[in-house]
Amino acid sequence: MVNGISSLTVWQEVALLIRLRWRIQRNQLRQKNAKLELVGLIVTGLFFFFFVGVIAFAFYEGAATMTRDNRMSWLALLFWGVLLFWQVFSVFFASLTTVFDFRTLLRFPLHLGAYFVMNVAYGLADPIAMAAVTFLLAIVAGVASVRPELLPAAFAVLLLFAFVNILIERCIGFWIEKLLSKRRTREITFVLMILGMISLQFVVPLFADKSKQILPWLPRVLPFLNGLPPGLAGRALAYAGSADFAACAGNFVALLAWAAPFAGLLWLRLGAQYRGELLLESEARAPAQRTATKTPAKPSALVPGEIAAIIQKELCYLKRNGIAWMNLLLPLLLVLLFTMQSFTQRHHGQIEALSRSSGWFFFGAVGYVLLLVLAPSYNAFAFEGRGLQVFFTAPVRFRSVILAKNLLLLLLIAVEVAAVLVLLHVRGLWPGPQQFVTTLAAMGYIIPAQLTIANWASIAYPRKLEFGSMRNQRASGMTVLVVLGTYITLGLSSFVVILAGKWSGNPWVSAGVFLLLAAAATSGYVASLDPLSSFAEKKREVLLDALCK
Fold it and tell me: Looking at the domain assignment, is residue 292 inside a domain?
């Protein structure tokens, strides 16, 4: 059998693997959860492609206008937009990439070439890549709608530009994954990202002050940008439009040359995986003599011992998760961004408007905190792995596990909101009493309502995640659908309550309504703990199968 497979060509191996992947996917649809996940992915995909369609129409109009006005050299700007969208969003939304892990294919006697081809081709399964290809098709359609004779050249440029972008995206993704596979490099990268985000707040005002000195230098920089893939793609179409086919072919070859270095770097990473490299943080174990025994959590009058122990474990998980730390710091950075002293000095009218609506600015900042902090609660057992078995074998009710995870989230939210209030106080944007009470009452309604739904989704649709991995971190399709539905429902209901307070002429009406909703949501949360505990026992096999494999 092995000799028979090894005698196949690369393309025959690729065809066999495609057939194998299709059969696996088809067999998985026989499970109830898989069918529901597919429905969730289809619904969320429709929302995604609606926004993609709107942006693609803008690319179409831009390409058609530039071609109609005989300014085809400006098409490079559209290609720059596609490249930046493809590469930047692929890094920030790497968790949306395909769930399929290609390292599982190495159990078969594949050629390295087949492994490389499958990895590159599978890059188009990324939602960001599909959106970027849609934008490129819109550019081609815009050019062809004005000058149909340029359709072959435009389509050839599209294929080559997409191929180069796939190589760049896959190369960056695999090398970043190697960089983030170690805890020390993750910490350094995290610190650099935070410093970069803070520095942007100072760079933007500086650029505004020095714009008159910087703008004259831009024409000198543009010729260097023409040698990059977007510039080469735009120039190839421009030369095709002027019937200079020799120059068009030269730019086409130069664009093809950009694929070589990225293909080589990607070949190195995939070759290392092919030879057995496994990026796991647990590979490097600390010496036994350096292992310190941690003090177990002590019970208190407020928190029972088992809940305190689980909270301690969750804090250990939090220390290892750089993405979670970044989500906790983002709301504070957002407040800093809108309240920088340099911003207030240059935009007095805007900061006065912000001061008049400082209470609702606090409401929005708290909403952003809840959006980021509560999002992981919809897959609360993602990092448990085989440790989930302990919760079912230990003499602990599952409601204690749920309650401990929720209490930690409440603690994080309290710290975040307190930090936001400190920043607003320093900037002189302290909210009024009515907005302050309304915001706290809205928190009392939104938090327990979200946690009740999130606890159910975590048990019904679990998905395993790994520390330090950029890929295969996508949540379940039904979980994404539940999150969207919850956010839309709670957001619309909160908006209606705020409007009701304005229509009534009494600003305290909104606070009163939110307090009533908070009481109902809290009662529902408390009442849901025991049923959710029983539900977790019934879904034990599903949880263990999804998280322990």
Answer: no
The C-alpha atoms of residue 389 and residue 99 are separated, in whole angstroms, by 24
DSSP 431: P
* 375 in the same domain as 318: yes
| Sequence letter at residue 501 | G
C-beta atoms surrounding 427 within 10 Å: 19
Residues 232 and 378 in one domain: no
Residues listed for the chain: 549
Cα separations in angstroms, 456 against 399, 526, 549: 12, 13, 21
Phi, psi (rounded to 5 degrees) for 212: -65, -30
Range 395-426 burial, b when 16+ CB lie within 10 A, else e: ebbbbbbbbbbbbbbeebbeebbebbbebbee
Dump pLDDT digits (tens) for 226-266: 788 888 888 888 888 888 888 888 888 898 899 899 999 98
Helix (H) or strand (E) holding 243: none
Separation of alpha carbons 12 and 120, rounded Å:
16
Q: How many CA atoms lie within 13 A of 358 on its CB side?
A: 18
Quick one: 420 and 360 in the same domain?
yes
Q: Does some domain include residue 263?
A: yes
Give the model's confidence band at 347: pLDDT under 50 very low, under 70 low, under 90 confident, else very high: very low
Nearest CA among 247, 55, 94 for reference residue 176: 94
As for how many domains the chain has, the answer is 2
CB under 8 A, 24+ apart: contacts of 198-201 = 198/333, 198/336, 201/333, 201/336, 201/337, 201/340
Give 200-216 pLDDT, tens digit per residue.
656 666 666 666 666 66
Alpha helices in 384-432 (DSSP H): 388-393, 398-426
How far is Cα 306 from Cα 302, in angstroms, rounded to an integer?
Answer: 12
pTM of the model: 0.61
Close Cβ partners of 311 (under 8 Å, ≥ 6 residues apart): 297, 303, 404, 407, 408
What is the extent of the structural domain holding 34? 10-185+214-274
User: If residue 29 lies in a helix (H) or strand (E), which one and from where to where?
Assistant: none
| Residues 474 and 463 sit within 8 Å (Cβ to Cβ) | yes
Confidence at 332, pLDDT banded by 50, 70, 90: confident
Query: DSSP of 145-173, one letter per residue?
Result: HH-GGGHHHHHHHHHHHHHHHHHHHHHHH
40 Rama sector, left if φ>0, alpha if ψ -120 to 50, beta otherwise: alpha
Eight-state DSSP code of residue 468? T
Which one-letter DSSP state was computed for residue 290? G
Q: What is the largest CA-CA distance in the chain?
A: 83
Of the candidates 182, 419, 197, 474, the residue with the CA atom closest to the CA atom of residue 322: 182
DSSP annotation of 471: S
* Interatomic CA distance for residues 301 and 115, integer angstroms: 58
The Cα–Cα gap between 168 and 120 comes to 10
Tens digit of pLDDT for each residue in 388-411?
888 888 788 888 889 999 999 999
State the pLDDT at residue 365. 82
